[in-house]
Amino acid sequence: MNQCPFKPGDSVIYLPSRRGYGLEDGDCLETGKTYKIESIKDGCYVIVEGYRHPGGGIFWTEFKMEKKS
To answer: Where residue 49 falls among pLDDT bands split at 50, 70, 90?
Structure first.
């Protein structure tokens, strides 16, 4: 399994895969919205500021690094 290339403080865009999108229900992140990473759990699960995922984090591949202008 690849390690997460992001670090706390990075801004990332939530772009869930079909599988990731299917796992979300109720109060969840918005597809295409930018979030700031609060922490990385176990080297692969992203925790973003202002959202507590019931499973403790979202796998890093569900995000894309925000392009810097």
So the answer is: very high
Averaged pLDDT, 8-34: 80
Hey, is 19 helix, strand or coil?
Answer: helix
pLDDT (tens digit, 9 = 90+) per residue, 22-48? Answer: 555 556 788 899 999 999 999 999 999
State which H helix or E strand residue 21 sits in. helix 18-23
Residues with Cβ within 8 Å of residue 38, at least 6 apart in sequence: 8, 47, 48, 49
Q: How far apart are the first and last CA of the chain?
A: 31
Q: From CA 64, how far away is CA 45, in angstroms rounded? A: 13
Asked if 45 and 56 touch (Cβ cutoff 8 Å), the reply is yes
